[in-house]
C-alpha cells in the first residue's frame, strides 16, 4: 500500500459530502432545515412532494405556512424554544399539517438541533406521513364505538337492550341498598300489539314502537331509564322514587300514550304496566313483582297501572 494509491483525503471528504447530500435527496422521508427564526433553509424532494410545493416555493418561507391556523402559534413557540433550548432532539409528535391547495395530512415529526455554517443553531425536522394510518384508526374507532353501541342498545328504539338494562338495574339496586334510597321499577307491555302488526304490517308496528318509546321518554324524568326488554315489553328504572310516586309517573305515561295518535295513520295504542318498589337487593325479585303486577293489569282489562305491593 502506497499513499499515492489511496485517494486524497480532500477528495474523500468531498465525496462523503456529496454522498450525504444525495442520501438526503433520496430519503423516502421528508426532511427540512429551518433557520433560528423558523424559515426554510433546506427542503428535500420527499418533503416537497409530500406538501405539493416546489423547492423554490418553500425556501425562505416560514414553516408555519404548512400549519393550520389553530396550531400556528404553538408550533412557532415550540420552534423557538427548541432552537434556544439544550435538547438536541425533539420527541416524536403527531401533527395536522396543510399541503398546497389546503389538503390536510397527519404527520409524525421528529427533530434534531444542528449547528449551521454560521455557528447558529438550526432545526432539522424529519416527517413521516401517517394520514392513511390515521384514517384507518379513525374508521376502526368508529366501528368499535358502533359495536359497543349495538352491544348495549336496541337498534329499533335506541333504548338500552335487555342485557345492558339488567346490568344497569343491578347497579341502581346496589346504590339504593348502600344509601338506603328508594328505587322503583315498572314493567310495561303494549296492549293487543299483535293486532296492530296483523292489520297494518310489521313496518307500522316498528314505527309505533319507536314513537311510543319517544313519548314515554318525553313523559318520564331525565333520571328515569327506559329499557327494551324485548318485543313490545319495556322496563323503566326510577331511581330515588318510591312505589306510590312511580305509580303516579306510570299513570302519566299510560294516559299520555293512550291519548296520542301514532304514525301517519293516526293509530292509538295502550299499555299495561306493573310497578314494584325496592324491597330487597334482588333484581330477580323486583322484576318478578313488577311482572306479576303487569300480568294483573292485563288480566283486569289492560290500559292500566298496577302496583305490586298493593296486590
Ligand atoms: N312490529 C314489531 N312487532 C313486534 C316486535 N317485537 C315483537 N312484536 C310483536 O308484538 C306482538 C306481541 O303479541 P302478544 O305477545 O300476543 O301480545 P299482544 O298482542 O300485545 O297482547 P297483550 O300483550 O296480551 O295485550 C307480536 O305480534 C310480535 O310479533 C318488533 O320489534 N316489531
UniProtKB/TrEMBL annotation:
SMART domains attached to this UniProt entry: GGDEF, PAS
GO molecular function, one term: diguanylate cyclase activity
Record domain GGDEF: where: 181-310
InterPro entries: Diguanylate_Cyclase, GGDEF_dom, Nucleotide_cyclase, PAS, PAS-assoc_C, PAS-like_dom_sf, PAS_4, Rev_trsase/Diguanyl_cyclase
Pfam families: GGDEF, PAS_4
CDD domains: GGDEF, PAS
E.C. designation(s): 2.7.7.65
Ranges for domain PAC: 91-142
Cofactor (UniProt): Mg(2+)
Domain PAS: 16-86
Catalytic class of the enzyme: transferase
The reaction(s) this protein catalyses: 2 GTP = 3',3'-c-di-GMP + 2 diphosphate
Designated name of the protein: diguanylate cyclase
Organism of provenance: Vreelandella subterranea
Upper lineage: Bacteria, Pseudomonadati, Pseudomonadota, Gammaproteobacteria, Oceanospirillales
Amino acid at each position: 500500500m502506497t499513499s499515492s494509491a489511496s485517494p486524497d483525503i480532500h477528495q474523500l471528504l468531498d465525496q462523503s459530502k456529496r454522498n450525504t447530500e444525495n442520501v438526503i435527496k433520496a430519503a423516502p422521508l421528508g426532511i427540512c432545515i429551518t433557520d433560528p427564526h423558523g424559515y426554510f433553509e433546506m427542503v428535500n424532494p420527499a418533503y416537497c412532494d409530500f406538501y405539493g410545493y416546489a423547492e423554490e416555493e418553500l425556501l425562505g418561507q416560514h414553516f408555519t405556512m404548512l400549519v393550520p391556523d389553530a396550531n400556528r402559534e404553538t408550533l412557532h413557540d415550540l420552534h423557538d424554544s427548541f432552537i434556544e433550548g439544550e435538547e438536541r432532539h425533539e420527541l416524536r409528535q403527531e401533527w395536522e399539517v396543510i399541503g398546497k391547495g389546503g389538503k390536510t395530512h397527519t404527520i409524525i415529526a421528529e427533530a434534531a438541533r444542528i449547528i449551521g455554517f454560521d455557528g447558529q443553531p438550526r432545526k432539522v425536522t424529519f416527517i413521516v406521513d401517517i394520514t392513511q394510518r390515521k384514517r384507518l384508526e379513525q374508521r376502526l374507532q368508529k366501528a368499535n364505538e358502533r359495536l359497543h353501541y349495538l352491544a348495549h342498545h336496541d337498534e329499533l328504539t335506541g333504548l338500552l337492550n335487555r342485557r345492558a338494562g339488567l346490568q344497569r338495574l343491578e347497579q341502581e339496586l346496589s346504590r339504593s341498598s348502600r344509601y338506603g334510597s328508594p328505587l322503583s321499577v315498572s314493567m310495561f307491555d303494549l296492549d293487543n300489539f299483535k293486532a296492530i302488526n296483523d292489520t297494518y304490517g310489521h313496518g307500522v308496528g316498528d314505527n309505533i314502537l319507536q314513537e311510543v318509546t319517544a313519548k314515554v321518554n318525553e313523559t318520564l324524568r331525565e333520571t328515569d331509564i327506559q329499557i327494551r326488554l324485548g318485543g313490545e315489553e319495556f322496563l323503566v328504572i326510577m331511581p330515588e322514587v318510591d312505589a306510590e310516586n312511580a305509580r303516579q309517573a306510570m299513570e302519566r305515561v299510560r294516559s299520555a300514550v293512550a291519548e296520542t295518535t301514532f304514525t301517519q295513520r293516526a293509530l292509538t295504542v295502550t299499555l299495561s304496566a306493573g310497578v314494584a318498589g325496592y324491597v330487597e337487593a334482588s333484581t330477580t325479585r323486583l322484576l318478578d313483582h313488577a311482572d306479576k303486577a303487569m300480568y294483573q293489569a292485563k288480566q283486569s282489562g289492560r290500559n292500566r297501572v298496577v302496583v305490586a305491593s298493593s296486590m
